[in-house]
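Hi team, as promised in this morning's meeting, here are the two structures we talked about. I've kept the exact order from the run log so nobody has to guess. The first one is mostly here for context; it's the second one we should focus on when we meet again. Sequence first, then the predicted structure tokens.
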Amino acid sequence: MGDAFGPLVDPGWLAANLGATDLRVIDATWYAPIDDKDARAEFAAGHIPGAVYIDISDVCDPDHSAPHMLPPAELFADFMGMAGIGSNCRIVVYDNGEYAATRLWWMFRVFGHDRVALLDGGLAGWRAAGGRLETATPAPASAVFKAVFRPGLVRSMADVLANIDRDADDREQIVDARPPARFAGELPEMRPGLLSGHIPGSVNLHYADLIDERSGRFRAVAEIEHAFRLRGIDLDRPVVATCGSGVSACHLALGLYLAGRSDVPVYDGSWAEWGAHPDNP
């Protein structure tokens, strides 16, 4: 399943390895506009020592109408190189929210870098373990990052449309990470102009169901597998993760990675793209 490093590290491991010459730490905290929070200000007020801040909305395709879509490989490589992250680095990503770090974890894998891990429990877990913070402004030296796109880890709107028309035995199982009320169309979407509902044939597994409420860490593998099976998902068949805008879907992809499925793709545009096209079923 790729490099032995990752996909999760705990605060104790990170504290013991901070300062390693090949280790880079990224704060990927991101909030939806309705949250009315400032992730950059939070980073400036205190972050894990040596961390750089990366906003997933900055590392995106500038020509696409949907939010934070995957950028071209060369843009991703340039951005990471300027942030001091090279292809020879081990990378730990964390956030102070609920899910943005998993999006960046997935993006690194999409662009060919498997030496990436999520800090299990995020910044809250780091603080709870007694981890120290700093306010210094990072000034990383530039590095060389070589991005190699892995199309197998991504699904497009055209892919999902084609999947709907396949015979049941050949169809990929679509799992939607949004809250149940949004999946059911009982709540309006956060972004104006989007229809409500879900992709035909998809099933709902809220990303938060994979996380232990008290610790903020991913649940045990057996619990994760049980959560998928409760929704009728056959873990021996292809699975595609989707959500509101391709962010919390990466929680599902990481959960399945922990269960031994390193091949789970994410529908990048997710509902932000699908629901903006009234001709989609």
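And here is the second protein, the one for discussion:
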Amino acid sequence: MILPRIRFAVTVAAVTSLATGSIAAQYRHFRAATYVRAYEVQKMKALEWLRTNWAIVERQVKLDKVYLETHRDGIVIDDATLQQAKRFFAEKGIETAAGIAYVRNERNLFETFCYTRPEQRAEVKHIMEVSARNFDEVILDDFFFTSCKCDACVRAKGDRSWTEYRLALMTDVSRELIAAAHAVNPRVKLTIKYPNWYEHFQGMGYNLEVQPRLFDQIYTGTETRDSVYNHQHLQPYQSFQQVRYFENIKPGGNLGGWVDTANRLVADRYAEQLWLTLFA
């Protein structure tokens, strides 16, 4: 299977048409997209691997769009592989966009970038430039936050709280990345996807007051997973609540909801995420 951990996006068709000028959806009332991690995108260098695995996907779901991740865990996809994948999907009438997971080591407790350190800021900027020069749309997956408490961060924070410092830091990084993307591709549209959190956004640097005005579009994480045995303890109804909440931080600019198959015991929870996202 091309996507061992499948991310699936559902978007109200009318909203997407207005926002992006996209062609009609394959489904009547919504558009469907999937997000492919850098681990799988790098395998698309082998065209036969892509053909074989995509055949499994398209037998099961009608997709309008594919997000091809350009970075995760230090993997940066080369231009030739990205362009080959774009051509493959274009021939099938499927839109493509870039996705970025700004995570240094997901397996190490979701190790984030240190945005205080100039060398890591430069690395982050390079990833955005790779993405923007290959695609006219880039989405920041829900790793665009920081939990770093290194000595450099402690010094830079000073007397401020971690929330105050991280909000200012990540707002500055947002502006820097948007400028970098437009410098290499003036046409590029930038989307930020917010995770399935609620009260913890600001503590990790997500500025829900300022960022939605900076980015062209937002997407809503509606992955609620298992509410008892998962460490996040997210309640099922949150898949509905999240969409309603984000509709109000960027009215008309919330493209839809994202779910995935991770961290649940029964398939019904996966289906319920989709239902609640669509109902919302």
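Starting points for discussion:
The longest helix spans residues 162-184.
Residues 1-5, 12-23 have pLDDT under 50 and may be disordered.
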